[in-house]
Design goal:
The chain is of the alpha/beta class. It is built from ten helices and ten strands. The protein has one domain: P-loop containing nucleotide triphosphate hydrolases (Rossmann fold, 3-Layer(aba) Sandwich). Strand 1 and strand 2 form a beta hairpin. Helix 6 packs parallel to helix 10 and helix 7 runs parallel beside helix 10. Adenosine-5'-triphosphate (ATP) binds next to strand 2 and helix 1. The site of adenosine-5'-triphosphate has 13 residues, from strand 2 and helix 1.
Length: 257
């Protein structure tokens, strides 16, 4: 079955033994949008993203990615998608440049394109000069940046980024936001997760609020705010939970500039 959406979940459920991590979601992500899955810890965001990548199999229901059924052709999906996991396990015993070379070779990127793209992203993310150092000497933020670059290298049509701005300083978060918007202008779709409302609002076109494995609400920030102020709205409580702490204030201010 072909789909006009970048990603389409249909009655998708994931049960881990006794835990219902994702509960019968129907979710359609438009091509070219930047979409946030916003929800508190344990609400099912990472599980949802892993199902897009075929890293977790739904217990029932289906996931279509770029018109491909993930279950039928997981390799075709991986070829066209860039993924940054929540805690990226980059090879600690390689240098940054060796790791990026290795990833580029897996995707069969030509030497000229590899050099040009790696240099461009190292520069954009301010890792220039550190690419020859061992990854085990990098800070968490630097590891996150290497992982982001490795996801961008093969020019994927879809980016799946699990908490991409974690560990990034305000300026770096801003650079990543700008990169995502630049890629959007080229038609790239991004789906990211966050538990911080202000980050979702500052970076994304549309937001899906996840809670206890369900998509409770979906829309632009303005639409969600309207729903949250409805009488007896459960959303209001969730909004309170999802509001970032003071620590994130500088990041959010930079993202909004
Ligand atoms: N491999 C697993 N085996 C068993 N249970 C799991 C597994 N992965 C996730 N879960 C459970 O599924 C639920 C959803 O987890 P998930 O990691 O998807 O949440 P999340 O929204 O990404 O949370 P966080 O904000 O903390 O990253 C949780 O109750 C979690 O304990
Ligand atoms: Mg998670």
């Amino acid at each position: 079955m072909n789909s006009n959406y970048a990603v389409e979940f249909q009655n998708t459920t994931k049960q881990y033994d006794e835990i219902l991590a994702v509960d019968n979601i129907d979710l359609k992500i438009n091509t070219g949008e930047i979409f946030a899955l916003l929800g508190p810890n344990g609400s099912g965001k990472s599980t949802t993203l892993k199902m897009i990548m075929g890293l977790v199999q739904p217990t029932s229901g289906s996931v279509q990615v770029l018109g491909i059924d993930v279950k039928k052709d997981p390799v075709a999906v991986k070829r066209q998608v860039g993924y940054v996991p929540e805690s990226p396990s980059v090879y600690e015993f390689l240098t940054g440049i060796e790791y990026l070379d290795f990833i580029a070779d897996i995707y069969g990127i030509s030497p000229a394109d590899k050099k040009q793209r790696v240099n461009e992203y190292l520069k954009a993310l301010q890792l220039e000069g550190r690419e020859g150092d061992m990854i085990n000497s990098y800070s968490d933020g630097m590891k996150k940046k290497i992982s982001l670059i490795s996801a961008f290298l093969h020019k994927p049509k879809l980016l799946i980024l699990d908490e991409p701005l974690n560990a990034l300083d305000p300026r770096s978060a801003r650079i990543v936001k700008d990169l995502l918007h630049e890629l959007k202008s080229q038609g790239v779709t991004t789906i990211l997760s966050t538990h911080v409302l202000e980050i979702a609002e500052a970076v994304c076109d549309r937001i899906g609020i996840m809670y206890q494995g369900k998509i409770l609400s979906l829309g632009t920030m303005g639409e969600l705010r309207k729903q949250a102020s409805l009488p007896e709205s459960k959303l209001e409580d969730i909004f309170l939970k999802l509001t970032g702490t003071g620590d994130l204030k500088p990041v959010v201010e930079e993202l909004l500039r």
